[in-house]
Amino acid sequence: MVRVVSRRLIQLFVTLIALMTLVFFWLRSLPGGPVDALLGERATPQTREALIRALGYDQPIWVQYGRFLKNVVTGNFGNSIRTGEPVTDVISRAFPATVELALAAILIAVGLGIPLGYLAARHRGRLLDNATIIVTLIGISIPIFFLGYLLKDWLTQDIHFFPPSGRISTGTDNTDVTGFFVLDGLLTREFDASADALWHLVLPAVTLATIPLAIIVRITRASVLDVLDEDYIRTADAKGLRNATIRKRHVLRNGLLPVVTTIGLQTGALLAGAVLTEKVYNWGGLGTLITDSISGSRDYPVLQALILLAAVVFIVVNLVVDLSYAFIDPRVRVQ
Amino acid sequence: MRAPRTVIAAGVIAAMTIGVAGCAESDRDNGEDQSNATGGTFIFAGAGDPKNFDPIFNDDGESFRPIRQMYETLVTHKPGTAELQGGLAESWSNDPTGKIWTFKLRQGVTFHDGTTLDAAAVCANFDRWYNMKGEAAQSQMIYYADVFGGFAGNPDAVYDNCKAPDASTAVVTMKKYKGAFPGAFALTAFSIASPAAMKQHGSDTVTQNGDSFSYSAFANEHPTGTGAFTFGGWNKATGEITLNKNANYWGEKAKVDKVIIKIIKDENTRKQELRAGTVQAIDFPAPADRKALADEGYQVLERPAFNILYLGINQKNNPKLKDLRVRQAIAYALNRAQLVQTKGPGGSVVADQFLPESVLGYAPDVQKYDYSVDKAKQLLSEAGATGLTLNFYYPTEVSRPYMPNPQEIFTVLANDLQAAGIKVNGVPRPWNGGFKDDVQQFGKQDLHILGWTGDYNDPGNFVGTFFGRPKVEFGDDAMADMFTAVGKADATVDQEAKRTAFEQVNRDLAAKWLPAVPIWHAPPAIVTTKEVQGLVPSPLTAEEFDTVSLTK
C-alpha cells in the first residue's frame, strides 16, 4: 500500500512539473495579457512601459520561466491580477465554496442514485423501472445552464421560495472558520447562518447533482441487474438465505464496484460542471474563479495555480477510487 | 417488503430540509424589519470586484464606487450633472497663466480617523502622488500619469509644488498649463486621504509579486477619507463591501445606516436578485430588460449620456481609406438612426460628434451624415474604391456602458456597409485576449468599434484622448494637422477661446478629417426597487449614496 501511494505521489510530482511548463508557455502564447488587464483603457504608453519593466516582461522568456518555477516551488504563486491579493488567498477562499457545493451534489447523487438504481433493477420492466429510465435520460441530456436557469426562474422568480444566488443572505453575520459556510455556522453556534447557507445550497446542489445522479442511477441499475442474473444469487436464494442478507452481502457489494468507479469519475466531472452551476448561481467558487480569470483579465497567476490544483484533485480522486476497490472487494489487490 | 424504507428516509430528509429552510426564511425577514427601523441598509448590486480602496491606485468604476462613498475630492460635480461645484474646497481659482490653482478649503472637516482636513493635508496628498517611488506603484497610478504627465524627475511632469499659506488655503502650482484642470481635480483618483492614516498603514508600499502587485493595509483594510460613509469591511467570500454611516460627517449626514455593495457579475442574476427583493438596486441592466423592469414597477434611472461609441477607421493598412471620400462613404452607408432604435439602450441618441452635448466645445453645426446608400456608392465610385474589402475588428467577452452588445452592433453595421457595396471581413477578438492589442497596439484592423466614457467635463478628455496625438488605432501620424489643431485648442487658457477652438475642431473632424464615425451616445442605467428614494444617477457614473433613503 505504502509503495503504491508513494509511486503515485512521484507520478503526481512529474505530472505537475510538466503541466506547469506547458501552462506557463501556453498562457504566454495567447494574445492579450496581464499588462492590458492591469492598465485598463486610460494608460499612457509610458505607463505601459513602466509596467512591463516592473513585471519583468522585458526579460527573456526563460528568465521569466525560471523566476516562475522558483516562486512556485517556494509556494509563492504571486498575486491575482484582478484583485491584487495573493493567489493562495484567492484560491483558499474559493476552494471550500466549490467543495461544499460538490459534496452536497455528490451526497444527493449517491444518496438518491444508488437506492433509485437498485429499486429500478428490482422492479425490472415495471412502471418504476421504465419511469426511472426516461427521467434519467432527460437528466443526462439536459444542459446545466438550461436547468439552472429553469429552476431559478421557477423557484426564485415565479414562486419566491429559494434565494436566486450567492452562498448566504446579504448582510448575514457569519464567522469564517473553515470556509464551509454550513459547517462554520454549526462550529460557531450561529445556527441561523448555517441554515441560511444550507438554504442557499439547495438549488445549486440539485442543479449540479442532476447529471451524476442520472448516471449513478443507470449504472447502479445495470450493475445490480447483472448481479441478480448471476448463478450465485440463485444458489443463495435456493439455500434459503434471507432476502436482506442476499441483498446486502451479495447483490449490493458486488453491484457497487462499477458504481464506485463512476462516482470517482463524476467527482472530477463535478468540478467541470461547477463552472456552469457557479456562474448561474453567482457561487464564489473555483468555477467562478476560472471564468473570471480567463475572460476578463487574463489572470495568469490564478489560472496557473488553478490548473495545478485541478490536476492534483484529479490524481488524488483517482488514487482514492483505486484504493477503495480493495475495501469493497477483497479480491482486488492494489498493485 | 423493506424497500419503502428508502423512500421514507428520502421523505424525512426532504422534510427536514424544508423545515430548516423555513427557519432561514423567517430569520431573513426579521433581519430586514429590524434594519428598516433604524434607517436601513441599502444593498446595491455592482457588476465587478473592486481592486482596492486607495483612490490613487485605481482607474475603474467598480473600485471607484465604494471609494466615492468614503472619500471626497477638492472639486466635485453637481448631482446628476457634469458641472463642477465645490467639494472639499469651497471655492477655487487660477491665475491668468493657468498654472497656479488656489483652493479655499471647507472648515470643520475631519477624516474618519479624527484628524483635521487642512491645507497641509491637501499638500501632503499632492506631494505623495508626485513623489511616489518605484515603477510598480507608478505603473498603477493610471490617472495621475495621464493627467499630471509623470512623476518627480520626469521632464513632462506638470506638477511643481503645493503650499499652505494658511490652514484653509492650498496653493497648487503647475509647471505648465494643462487644459484638463479644473475638471480633473474632480476625478475620484485624486480624492484627498488622511495623511496620518496613510503613514500609519504604509500606503505607498506597492510590491511586485509574480505577475501582479501587493497593496498596503491602507489600501485594503484602512481606507480613510472624509466621506459620508466609513469603511465597514470587505467580505471577499460573499463578495460584499460594507460601508457605515459617518456620524461625524461635515455635511448632511447619510440617510441610511449602512450600504452594502454586493458584487454580482452576471447581469441576469443581478436582475433576478432585484426581483427576489434581495438587493434594492442594480447597475448596468441589460438594455433589453429595461422596459420589462419598468413595466414591472421598478425605477429605471437613466444616467445622462456622457459617452460615445464610434466606428474607428485605420488609414494605415488600406490606402483607399486615406481618401476622405471613402471615409465619408462609410459614414453615409451606416443607418445609425435604425441602429439606435433597434440595439441602443433606452435613451440612446445618434452621435454627430465625439463628445456629448453637455461638454464645452460641442458644435451644433457640424456636417451630418444622414443615411444614404446612394451617396455612399457614388462617393466610393468617385474615389475608385468600388469593391472595397475591409477587415472589421470587434470585441467579444465584453460589455461596456457605451457598447452593451458589441457582436450585435457589429452585425448591423457590417450589413449596412455590405449594402453599400463594401465587403466586410468580420474579425471577433476577446476584449483582453487580443482585441485591445490588435487594435491599439498593432493596428491590424481597417475598421473597429470602440468608445469611451468621459472622466470629467472637458473636451480634451474626449477629442484630445482620441485625436490629440498619433495613435495606432487610427493609423499613427495619418493627420498631422488634426493633432496640431486639437493640441492648440487644448492649450488655450481662456475658456471662451477654448470653446471656440474646440467647436472648430469638431466641425473639422466631421467635414475635413473624419478619422472615425461617431455612432451613438448611450445612457447606462441603474434600476431600483420602489422603496429607494433620492438616488441621483450621474452622467459620470459617480453616484453618491448619502442621499439615498428607503421607504416601505
Automatic annotation (TrEMBL), chain A:
GO biological process terms on file: transmembrane transport
Cellular location(s): Cell membrane
Pfam family, any one: BPD_transp_1_N
CDD domains: TM_PBP2
Any one GO cellular component localisation term in the record: plasma membrane
Keywords from the UniProt entry: Cell membrane, Membrane, Transmembrane, Transmembrane helix, Transport
Limits of the ABC transmembrane type-1 domain: 95-321
Annotated transmembrane regions: 9-27, 101-121, 133-151, 197-217, 256-276, 305-328
Family matches, as InterPro entries: BPD_transp_1_N, MetI-like, MetI-like_sf
Bilayer topology term: Multi-pass membrane protein
Main location: membrane
PROSITE patterns, per database record: ABC_TM1 (PS50928)
Similarity comment: Belongs to the binding-protein-dependent transport system permease family.
PANTHER family associated with the record: DIPEPTIDE TRANSPORT SYSTEM PERMEASE PROTEIN DPPB-RELATED (PTHR43163)
Annotated protein name in UniProt: Putative ABC transporter permease protein
Species of provenance: Actinoplanes missouriensis (strain ATCC 14538 / DSM 43046 / CBS 188.64 / JCM 3121 / NBRC 102363 / NCIMB 12654 / NRRL B-3342 / UNCC 431)
From TrEMBL, chain B:
Molecular functions per Gene Ontology: peptide transmembrane transporter activity
Domain Solute-binding protein family: residue ranges: 83-468
Keywords assigned by UniProt, alphabetized: Signal, Transport
GO BP annotation list: peptide transport
Keyword Transport on entry: yes
Keyword Membrane: no
A Pfam short name: SBP_bac_5
Residue stretches spanning the membrane: none
UniProt GO cellular component terms: ATP-binding cassette (ABC) transporter complex; periplasmic space
Family: Belongs to the bacterial solute-binding protein 5 family.
Protein name according to UniProt: Putative ABC transporter substrate-binding protein
